[in-house]
């Protein structure tokens, strides 16, 4: 795969490769109760966050997961994470995942960044399908998916363990042709 690109998200934000210096911001984000609610994994220290960032960067090299830091274009402060995991270049598919720092929620930035990433994945990499799953109780994540054009495909029952137990997962997908339908 080509070098890890940075992608413009409108005039306000940028999807860029992760840096080890982002570790403090990752720890701060994972101290947020909403992120803790939807993620079992915790970043308890900057060392642990640096390990995650190293894994995220290694995922690009291995062509297994493609991770971006979503940052404010002016300050370079971390606003969130967007990734394509379960990458299968042969089948042209991946699964999208994301989270946003609390101060940046509710502005439409996550759905805009997800749209930008999917357009890049379809156009530049040649993906055919990008899936996405979230807890049926995570209404904000559902809004992000729908605003980015993902269509609902169904529900997987008791499919993911969260801090409060097993959750049914809403299944969405965006196909390369769906983006043409939205023009």
Automatic annotation (TrEMBL):
Domain N-acetyltransferase residues, every copy: 13-181
InterPro entries tied to this protein: Acyl_CoA_acyltransferase (IPR016181), GNAT_dom (IPR000182), Ribosomal_N-acetyltransferase (IPR051908)
Entries under SUPFAM superfamilies matching the protein: Acyl-CoA N-acyltransferases (Nat)
Domain of life: Bacteria
Cellular component, GO annotation: cytoplasm
Keywords for the protein's UniProt record, in alphabetical order: Transferase
Name of the molecule in the record: Acetyltransferase
Organism: Mycolicibacterium conceptionense
Phylogenetic classification of the source organism: Bacteria, Bacillati, Actinomycetota, Actinomycetes, Mycobacteriales
């Amino acid at each position: 795969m080509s070098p890890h690109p940075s992608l413009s998200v409108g005039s306000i934000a940028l999807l860029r490769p992760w840096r080890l210096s982002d570790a403090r911001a990752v720890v701060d984000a994972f101290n947020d109760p909403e992120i803790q609610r939807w993620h079992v994994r915790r970043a308890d220290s900057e060392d642990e966050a640096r390990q995650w960032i190293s894994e995220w960067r290694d995922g690009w090299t291995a062509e297994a997961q493609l991770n971006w830091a979503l940052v404010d274009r002016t300050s370079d402060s971390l606003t969130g994470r967007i990734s394509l995991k379960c990458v299968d270049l042969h089948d042209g598919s991946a699964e999208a995942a994301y989270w946003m720092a609390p101060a940046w929620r509710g502005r439409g930035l996550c759905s805009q960044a997800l749209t930008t990433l999917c357009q890049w994945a379809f156009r530049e990499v040649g993906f055919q399908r990008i899936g996405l799953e979230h807890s049926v109780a995570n209404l904000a994540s559902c809004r992000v998916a729908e605003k980015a054009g993902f269509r609902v495909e169904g529900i997987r029952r008791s499919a993911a363990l969260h801090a409060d137990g097993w959750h049914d997962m809403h299944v969405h997908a965006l196909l390369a042709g769906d983006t043409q339908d939205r023009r």
